[in-house]
Each structure stands twice: as structure tokens, then as C-alpha cells.
Amino acid sequence: MTKLDVQSVAVIGAGPGGLSALYELSHTNADGTTTVGEAKSSNPQFKKIVAFEQKSMWGGIWAPEGFKTGSMFPPQEVLDTNRYNMPDVVSPSKEIPEGLEKTSRDSPLHIKKSKAETELDWNKSGIFPELFTNVPSRYMRFSYIRHEEKYSDKNRVIYPFLTLNEFSHRLYSFVEREKLDEYIRVNSSVEKVIKSDSGKWIVVVRETSDDSSTVKWYQEEFDAIISAVGHYSIPHIPCIPGLNEYNKLHGETLIHAKSFRNREVFRNKKVIVIGSNLSSTNLLQYIVPLASSAYISKRSENKNFPWIDRAVEHGGIICKPSIEKFIPETKEVLFTDGSVEKDLDLIIFATGYHFHFPFLEQNFKVIRPSNTSRVKGLYYNTFSINDPTLAAIGVTTSPITFHTLEAAAAAIAGVWSNAKALPSKEDQIAWEKRRVEETGENVAFHYYKPKEIKEKFLDEIQEYFPLNRHNPFEEDSKYLHEIDDGLVTIEQLFYNLKDSQLSVEETSTF
Prior knowledge:
- By secondary structure, the protein is of the alpha/beta class.
- Helix 1 (16-26) runs parallel beside helix 9 (401-416) and helix 9 runs parallel beside helix 11.
- The chain has 13 helices and 21 strands.
- The chain has helices at 16-26, 76-79, 87-90, 115-119, 164-178, 243-250, 278-287, 307-311, 401-416, 425-439, 453-461, 481-498, 504-508, and strands at 8-12, 48-52, 109-112, 184-185, 188-195, 201-207, 214-222, 224-227, 254-256, 270-274, 293-297, 318-320, 323-327, 332-335, 340-342, 346-349, 365-367, 374-376, 378-379, 383-384, 390-392.
């Protein structure tokens, strides 16, 4: 394969995936070796690295930004389309102004901020102050960040997990130590990425600030692009008959789970959670002790986490099937079994998120957009099959999240520094076809169970790492029992919090 000439890289997103890219690229030498675990490269392959982050601070979904809420639910005009289950409808692309060809960051185009830009805001994080992780501490870190053994103490109430503060401290210390914030431009949303005739990528950027009435637009050229936007920003709202009319009369009762911040909103309320997943149980453990009544609407059994089905039938929660329709005139909800609930005070959609790449819609194709979609055309969920200078980090899903982010970043660094070469386009397509045959055309394509992640993903993608790069899972694969321990803990914590055997403070303050 022809050698690549990549010296400038744009990273879209500065959450954990983007941070892994910044670290890896800044430690890659021009000869294809790496200095990971040591000082940054003194002879770097990548001379210009820029991360564009749309939020006011880096960290992705782990950036609390003062726990601002952002949009609570799609606005009425979106619901009235009856296509609010589509990502391009619930989060439409911004109109790109003309005349950007001669702009730059230092000489941008100033446009008056529109009302829509202040009203529809999905980029706020979905975390809340009492949150604790649902992935063990050991796997909430990159391999080059030391694991503190105190978090493996089985006497900890939330072993093997971390509180939000503990994890935030770990992530912030890493960024500060490595000075990664020097590469990041906050309040900078990438609206479009276009391949020019010269072979360069043109990145169109919209830069905002809360205290300004204008938006700055400019464009900038790069040799290669990494999308690291994750998929926990754009909420998936299933289309249910009557929802748009229900919102007109009772809109104050409807929210998506990512908008939850304060458990006091549940006090003495009649609350239903739609969806049967980790987000649902995470909410219900706080709802039950405070609400006058708590419901869950679940469509089917949870095959990935069977304990959830046991948990929601444990007591204190009324289980309902899927919602047939909303009846706004009488403030009722009709379920598929014919039962009806009236005067619900809060209806929480814990219905997942979309993969959404509006800035690269011609390159990253999402198959049948929903909360169970897959992204087409990515070799090992990382490299664009159609263009080797385009890549993604964060599409692979697994409880071993940080190690998969690190591995994708390492593979990108290895290929783009010409230490390694990708196989032919035909071979990449053949890999994708085999994976589809194994998993189907859905999000399972991107998912790896903990016990298969090393053999089926990490060991295979290691083939593309820089010359002396270690496998990030080599040491930590010895501790997979902590994943099993975590499943026991998270179920027990659910019961203890739900039944007020534990206080919220005991699980969130150390």
C-alpha cells in the first residue's frame, strides 16, 4: 500500500477517546516508534495536532460543566415531524455560511447567534453529582495510567467502582500531567469535514461562547481526521403515537435520562422510566425511595445484563410492557397489554443514544439509525475503508472501554506514521462482511464481551501499532474477575439504594 503523508491531524471531540488520540499521536516518533509511558516525542511524526471540543471543557460525557442540563426533550416542532427518532431530525445540522474560503481561526467570519442555537442543546453531559461508574476502576483508565490498588479493596462500599469525583480526579490529573489541554480548542464544534481536490481535509468550525451574541466560523486544513465524538450525546426517542400532542399539553413531564441531575425531582411524584438497561436501573435506585410510585416500561428481556430483569421485579417497582400510545386529553398512557396509567408526573426516556456523524455524513454511514444501529465502512471499528486518512475512536463498545480507545488510537498512530500498513480495501471489506455474518447488522457488530475482547479485538488490532508499542490489555487481562465482581456489586447496590439500606452519600462520597 502507498505510504501515507500525515503530519497534521484534527481530532473531533476531546472526551476519553479524543484524549487517547492526543496522547498517542504526541508520543509517536517519525520513525514509527513510540514513547508511550515516557516523555512526548522529541522527533514527532505529527507536527500539528488539534482537538476540537464543542463543550466549554474537555472530558466528553465526563465533563460536568457545573452539571448544566441543556435540552430536556426535543422541542415541539421536532416532535411534530413524527421523525424525532432520527438523529438528523432531533439534532439537525447547522447551516454553513458562505464565504469561509479565506477565513482562519485568527480571521473568522462573525455571524449573529440564532435563537435555535441557544434553545436546542444536546452537547451537555449526562452525568450527575451522585454518579458512580458501572465499570471497574481498573478498566476506567488507560494502561499508561497507574491503577491505585486502594480501589481494589473489597471493603469499599462501591468496590470495584469509582465515584464521579474519584474518576474526574484521575482524568484531570492525567491531562494536566501530560499537558494535553494545549492541543484542545473548547467551544469549537466541527460542522463539516470535506476532502479537497488536493487531498487535504477541510474542517469547518463553529466557535461559540456564552457571553457573546455572535458565532465565529472558520475553516482549517489537515492531512487526516479522527472522529472521537462517542455516541452518548444525541438521545434516541422512539416514535410513539400521541407523543407530540402529549408534549403540547404536558411537556413538563417529559425528559430524556441524560437530563437527570437532582433526585429531589422524584419526591412524592408518580414516575415511569421507559427502557430496560443500565440507565434505567441507575435512575430507579434513586426514584423508588422518594417517589409516591415508580414504574418501568420494558419491551423485552435484557440479554447483556440479565440481573436487570431480576432487579426491576424485586419490589417497589411496577413493571409495564411497551407503551402503545399517549392519550393527551386525559393525561393517560396506554400500554400494549391494554392497561392504562393516568396522571404520571414524570416520564423518563432511558432509551439510549444515536451514532451520529453529521460532519462526515458522506463517509460514516449509520445503518437504520436507532439506539441499536451500527456504523458501516469501518475496519476494526476504527479505519475508514474508503479513505485511510480518516478514522474513528469510540465506536467499539465493551466494558473494557478505555483499553479499546487506547488500542484504536495506537493503531491509528502506527498506520499514519507508516510503521504499519493496512491490508487492501478488498481484505478490509471481507473482514467487515465476516463480522456482519457473525453479529448481524446492528450494534452487536461493535460490541465485544470482556472475555473475548483481547482475542477478537485487542490482539488483532495490535498488528497496526507503532513498532515498539505494548498491548494495553496485556497486564490488565489478568483481572477480568473484577468485571464479574462488579456485576454482583452493582446489583446489590441497586437493592440497597432502592430499599434505603444505603444512603446516597455512602456511595458517592469518599
